[in-house]
Amino acid sequence: MDWFQEHLALPKHLSSRLWLITLPSAVVSFEKRSDMPKLPKAGRVLGVALAGAGIALGFMALRRPDTTLAYDGPLAPVAKKPATAAGLLGLGGVAFVTRSTFLLLYALGLAYAAGTERMSLEEPSSGTLLGGRVADPSRASG
């Protein structure tokens, strides 16, 4: 067990609504109120490319939910879930487009935590993000 897990109460699992919508909104809101330096304007082109790749991967994941990416590297656990990888790419792209340093650090931190399996990220789907269905059938009421 490392120092972070010993001394900080970090969650082991984050729902897709939390890691993809709620926390990034709070991060950007906090950053607007602070004097954190912004990323360079030249990064906006990279941001558009990353966000576009995230959108394309997200559509692929929605059309074929059982697909995995063939990748054996440091972020292999994330690559096994294409919708999660799409969300992380999208967050990174939005960070560069909006020049948000905190949002970029947040996206990189999530990628590291999920890639090293210190934290599991729920794979986003249109149903769980838009409230159409419950991700875990055991949590359904009825």
How does this structure look, described?
- The chain is mainly α.
- The chain has a domain at 17-30 and 41-122.
- Helices cover 59% and strands 3% of the residues.
- The protein contains seven helices and two strands, in the order H-E-H-H-H-H-H-E-H.
- A two-stranded parallel ribbon has the order 1-2.
- The longest helix has 21 residues, at 43-63.
- The chain is globular and about 45 Å long.
- The chain starts with a helix and ends in a 12-residue tail after the last helix.
- The model has no long low-confidence stretch (mean pLDDT 79).
In short:
This protein has 142 residues and is mainly α. It has helices spanning 3-7, 16-33, 43-63, 76-79, 82-97, 101-115, 126-130; strands at residues 13-14, 120-121.
Q: Which regions are unreliable across 5 or more consecutive residues at pLDDT < 50?
A: none
- Indicate the percent of residues in helices: 55-70%
Record the strand order, biggest sheet. 1-2
For the sheet with most strands, the description reads: 2 strands, parallel
* Estimated radius of gyration: 16 Å
Which descriptor suits the 3D outline? Answer: globular
Estimated structural class? mainly alpha
Mean of residue pLDDT values: 79
Strand content bin? under 5%
Instruction: Give the distance, in angstroms, between the N- and C-terminal Cα atoms.
Output: 40 Å
Question: Would you list the SSEs in sequence order as H and E?
Answer: HEHHHHHEH
